[in-house]
Specification:
Elements (H helix, E strand, L loop, with lengths): L1 E3 L5 E3 L5 E2 L4 H12 L7 H9 L7 H19 L7 E4 L2 E4 L7 H13 L5 H11 L17 H24 L3 H5 L1
Antiparallel strand pairs: 1-2, 2-3, 4-5
Helix pairs in contact: 1-2, 1-3, 4-5, 4-6, 5-6
């Protein structure tokens, strides 16, 4: 299973098929939990992020229903994945690891590449990391004000990755590769 936010928010099975999360509120919920990068998000914060002041009649009950539907979608992506969406006293938490979360994999790959010398492995690691990008982080949700810090961080890391790639190519005597 993969949760992808480097482009439109998507949930992908181990076989590479996309699980349909068509409803915007469910995608917002997935985005809010993913953007927290494994940290708990209080229910009231999730309610604010999903409905932005235009609350349903019973927001906590509707949030519970959305969380249940998200757990079902996670299970469609991988049997048992619903267990990754937990509730703690601090809020709801989506347990992520670098294998399941493209943004985490991207940031980790760029950080690992930074520690490498000017080698072909570093060029490949940075190139591979940059290929994870499918579009603007969080896609059509990127204009949500609460996502701004996560979007900005991902853009910063991407800029750092491009800069490191160009510098490494130049250090390796490949100015043409740096231009391309």
């Amino acid at each position: 299973m993969r949760i992808e936010v480097l482009g439109h928010v998507r949930l992908i099975t181990n076989e590479g098929a996309e699980v349909q999360v068509a409803e915007r509120h469910l995608r917002l919920l997935l985005a809010a939990l993913a953007a927290a990068d494994g940290e708990p998000v209080p229910a009231d914060t999730l309610i604010d992020r999903l409905w932005n002041g235009d609350l349903p009649a019973n927001p906590k009950k509707v949030l519970q229903a959305k969380l249940s539907r998200l757990r079902t979608a996670l299970d469609q992506a991988r049997l048992g994945a619903r267990e990754r969406l937990t509730h703690t006293p601090a809020g709801y938490q989506l347990i992520l690891d670098t294998d399941t979360f493209d943004a985490g994999r991207f940031k980790g790959a760029v950080e690992d590449a930074r520690r490498m010398g000017a080698s072909s492995q570093k060029v490949q690691a940075l190139t591979d990391a940059l290929t994870l990008w499918r579009g603007a982080p969080f896609g059509d949700m990127a204009d949500e004000i609460w996502l701004a810090p996560a979007v900005a961080e991902l853009h910063d890391v991407r800029g750092d990755a491009f800069e490191a790639l160009v510098e490494t190519l130049l250090e390796r005597g490949d100015p043409q590769g740096a231009i391309n």
